[in-house]
Amino acid sequence: MTASLIDSIGWTLLHFTWQGLLIGSTCAILLALMRNSRPEYRYNLACAALLACVLWPAAELTLRLQDGGAGVASMRFSDRMSAAARGGDAGLAAWLQDQLLWIVGFWSVCAALLALRMAAGLAWIRHATGAPLAGPEWQARAGRMAASFGVTRTVRVRVLGNLDSPLTIGSLRPLVLMPASLMSGMPADLLEALLAHEMAHVRRFDYLVNLGQNAAEIVLFYHPAVWWISGRIRVEREQIADDLAARHLGEPRRLARALSELERLQFSGHHLAVAASGGDLVARVRRLVKPHRQALDWKAALPALGLAAACFSLYAHASTERASLQPVLASVKPVADFSSCAKPRWPQASLLAEHTGTVTLSFKVGTDGRVTASRVKQSSGHALLDEAAREGIMKCQFSAGTHKGKPVPSWMDMQYVWSLK
Q1: Residues 254, 176 within the same domain
Q2: What pLDDT, on a 0 to 100 scale, did the predictor assign at position 227?
Q3: Sign of CA dihedral 128, 132, 135, 139
Q4: Assigned domain for 343 exists
Q5: Within this chain, do residues 278 and 149 fall inside the same structural domain, yes or no?
C-alpha cells in the first residue's frame, strides 16, 4: 500500500508539470484578451485557473488510488512517456519510476516547511490581534465606513508598531491593523482612504481567499504557473479594492495620494494578511489618476500561445489515440498461439524491489493476428510491471477474430500474474 501511494503521488506530481503549463498558458492568453475588462472578471478567471490547478491533480490522484496506484502505463499521457522505456530500464519512465521515492520525499519535506511557515504567519496574526485599539474616533469611523460598505460585522482598528502597511486579517471577526508610523505621520484624510481600501477587502472576504491561495502554493510549490496565477489574483484583488474604495470616497485622487505615501515605506512581508501595499503601487496610482486602455503586447503573449498550442496538441493526440482504441465487435473472438508468446522480461528495478501483482490488459488484435494496441484495464500497482506486460502481449501471435466469416480487428482481455513464488 505504501509503494502504491508513493507511485500515485509521484506520478500525479510529475504529470502536473504539463497540466500546470496548460492551465497557466491558457489563463495568460485569456487575461491578455481581457486586459481592458473589469478587474472583477480577470480576478474570477485567475481564481478559476488556480482552482483548476488544485482540482485536476486531485482528480488524477483519486483515480490512481482507485486503480490501486496505477502508474505510467495506465495513465493518459504516461503512455507517451512509457514508450521511452520499452527498450529497457534505462528509459525515461523507468528512471523516473526509480526516483519516485526521492521525488515524493523532497515534495513532502518542502511542503511541510512551507506549512510551518504558514503556521508561523498565522501565529503572528494571532499575536497581532492583541495590539492596542486605535482611538475612539477611528473606531467610530470604521463603524460608519463598514455600514456604508454593507459590512454587518464589527470591524476593529488596531495599531501595531512594527508594521509598514495597513493589513486586513480575519473574516468572521475582521480586524484592520494600522502602522503606528502612519497613524502619527499621515494626514487623517489619507488614512481614511487606506481604511476604505481595507474595508473593501473585508466586504469581499478576501482574507479567506488569500488563505486558500497560500494552501495551493504550499501543495504545488514546485510549479511556477501556480505562483504566477496566484500573483495575478493578488494584483487583480488590489485593483478591485481600489475601485471600491475610490467609489466610496468619491475621490480617486485621494486614494492615489495615500498609495503614493505608502510607496515610500518598506512593504509588509506578512503574505497571509491582505495588505494595502499589494501589487505594483506605481501602476495602481497611475490607474486611479489616469485610467487608459492597454495595448496587447504580442511579444509577451507569444510564449503563452506556444505553450498552450503544444499542450493542446498533446491532448488532441491522446484523445485521437483513445478514440482509435474503441472495441470492435467480433462474432468469433481471437485465439492466442501461446507458442509464439515469449515470457515478458521482469524489469530489473521491480525484481530488486520484489514487486508483484496482477495486470489485466485489454488489447486489440488486427486482421493479421498481431496486437496493434493495448491498454491497462486493471493495474498491478507498479508501472514497470504494467509496461512489461504490455511489451509481452505485443510479441504474441493470434488467430484473428472474425465477423460473418471475415477477419476483423477486435479486442480481448488477458491477465499477467507477476509472482516471485
Answers
A1: yes
A2: 94
A3: positive
A4: yes
A5: yes
Question: Which three cell numbers mark 205?
Answer: 472576504
Specify whether 143 is located in the same domain as 92. Answer: no
The DSSP secondary-structure symbol of 133 reads B
Place of cell 474595508: 199
Residue whose grid cell is 503574505:
271
Residue range of the domain that includes 144: 128-213+235-289
Q: Which three cell numbers stand for residue 168?
A: 486586513
Cβ–Cβ < 8 Å for 33, 41: no
Give Rg (Cα) of the chain.
Answer: 29
State the average pLDDT over residues 383-409. Answer: 80
Is 10 found in the same domain as 101? yes
Residues 303, 248 share a domain: no
Residue type, 237: R
Query: What is residue 382's predicted lDDT score, i.e. its pLDDT?
Result: 82
In this structure, the answer to whether residues 147 and 283 fall within a common structural domain is: yes
CA distance 44 to 55: 16
119 and 133 assigned to the same domain: no
Q: Nine-digit cell at 413? A: 482481455
Three-state DSSP class for 336? strand
Place of cell 487606506: 194
The pTM (predicted TM-score) of the whole model is 0.66
Cα–Cα distance, 258 to 192 (Å, whole number):
9
Collect all residues with Cβ–Cβ distance below 8 Å to 114 and sequence separation of at least 6.
Answer: 217, 218, 221
45, 125, 294 from 38: Cα distances, Å: 11, 32, 12
Query: How many domains does the chain fold into?
Result: 3
So what's the pLDDT on residue 380?
Answer: 81
pLDDT-based confidence at residue 180 (cuts at 50, 70, 90):
confident
- The number of angstroms, rounded, from the C-alpha of 55 to the middle of its chain's C-alpha atoms is 7
* Cβ 29 vs Cβ 301: under 8 Å: yes
Q: Hunting for cell 503556521 — which residue is that?
A: 119
- Residue 224 within any structural domain of the chain: no
Answer yes or no: do 256 and 393 share one domain: no
For residue 223, being part of any structural domain is answered with no
State how far the alpha carbon of 70 is from the alpha carbons of 89, 102, 210, 315, 322, in Å.
18, 19, 34, 20, 18
Average the pLDDT over 14-32 and give the result. Answer: 91
- The cell for 278 is 499589494
